[in-house]
């Protein structure tokens, strides 16, 4: 029984024979919304317009201008959630086997159709499409959770790194660092990174964090040896960032904002750059000298202003930072 409260699934049928299109519509009209097209090119346009609602694509093989295989490959490449079925009255065995082997089609149905069998085939194909969509949604939710966990772990690593490098005062720069990252905007990590085996991910993250910590330590030692005043940090930033940093009366503006989010957003296999290590080292050095940077977003980039350092964030405040990401 069809649930009247639910919209009917959509099936796109492509065939150059008007009689076949009408026959297919009459056979399936009670169990699906049937869309039709009379050529491969028209079928492509219909797919592009209705891909979100189409569950199944059925295409005749032999049509003027192009074979149905071309349309099925088009759908396979762009809309993999759609179940693809080939139908023909001809013995196009070579083309059919090729399409099956390449994963372009789910099934092959030969004409003339048996109506009962056709309806059953379409019912099963629609169900398969539904399962694919549910699986894709679950995967998206899993990836989102993995992304949030990874970013939260990295923020925890930053907090520990700050405390480990410079003691309790070193936790102060975490506010400036995370504020700058929020102002810059954080791009979600790459899906390939998120789909790694979890144990491999944890191991790779540990090595990446350790390498980053060593870079930061080296950079911080270099800054400490200069014996400068806190206000000199803007000259250092201008020197390190080059044309990506603009001096202003109040401090400066970081124009190339991606440089502020590298540790949090790049894939685990990507080593963190020396420039990003310098950025955190500069914040740590300021914290050691009783200052920090107040960050704010603007149309020209992320603006930084020198201010006295406040108390280190509490666990609750750090949790609040993590929630914002």
UniProtKB/TrEMBL annotation:
Coiled-coil stretches: none
Keywords: Phosphoprotein
PROSITE patterns per UniProt: RESPONSE_REGULATORY (PS50110)
GO biological process: phosphorelay signal transduction system
Chain positions with 4-aspartylphosphate modification: 60
Domain Response regulatory: 10-126
Gene3D superfamilies for this protein: 3.40.50.2300
PANTHER family: STRESS RESPONSE REGULATOR PROTEIN 1, TWO-COMPONENT RESPONSE REGULATOR-RELATED
Protein name according to UniProt: Response regulator
Organism expressing this protein natively: Pseudoduganella dura
């Amino acid at each position: 029984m069809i649930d009247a409260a639910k919209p009917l699934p959509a099936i796109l049928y492509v065939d150059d024979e008007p009689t076949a299109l009408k026959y297919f519509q009459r056979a399936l009209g009670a169990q699906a919304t049937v869309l039709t097209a009379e050529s491969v090119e028209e079928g492509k346009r219909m797919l592009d317009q209705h891909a979100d609602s189409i569950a199944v694509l059925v295409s005749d093989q032999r049509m003027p201008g192009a074979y149905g295989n071309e349309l099925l490959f088009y759908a396979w490449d762009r809309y993999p959630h759609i179940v693809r079925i080939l139908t023909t009255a001809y013995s196009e065995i070579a083309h059919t086997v090729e399409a099956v082997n390449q994963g372009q089609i789910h099934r092959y149905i030969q004409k003339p159709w048996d109506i009962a069998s056709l309806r059953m085939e379409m019912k099963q194909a629609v169900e398969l499409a539904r399962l694919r969509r549910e699986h894709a949604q679950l995967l998206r939710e899993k990836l989102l959770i993995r992304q949030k966990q990874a970013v939260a772990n990295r923020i925890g690593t930053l907090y520990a790194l700050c405390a480990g490098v410079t003691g309790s005062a070193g936790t102060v720069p975490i506010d400036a660092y995370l504020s700058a990252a929020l102002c810059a905007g954080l791009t979600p990590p790459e899906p390939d990174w998120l789909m790694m085996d979890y144990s491999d991910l944890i191991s790779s993250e540990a090595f990446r964090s350790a390498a980053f910590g060593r870079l930061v330590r080296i950079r911080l030692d270099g800054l400490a040896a200069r014996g400068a005043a806190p206000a000199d940090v803007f000259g250092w930033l201008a020197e390190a960032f080059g044309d990506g940093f603009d001096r202003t009366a109040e401090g400066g503006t970081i124009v190339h904002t991606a440089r502020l989010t590298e540790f949090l957003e790049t894939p685990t296999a990507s080593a963190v750059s020396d420039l990003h290590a310098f950025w955190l080292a500069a914040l740590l050095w300021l914290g050691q000298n009783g200052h920090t940077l107040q960050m704010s977003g603007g149309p020209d980039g992320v603006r930084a202003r020198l201010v006295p350092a406040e108390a280190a964030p509490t666990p609750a405040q750090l949790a609040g930072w993590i929630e914002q990401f």
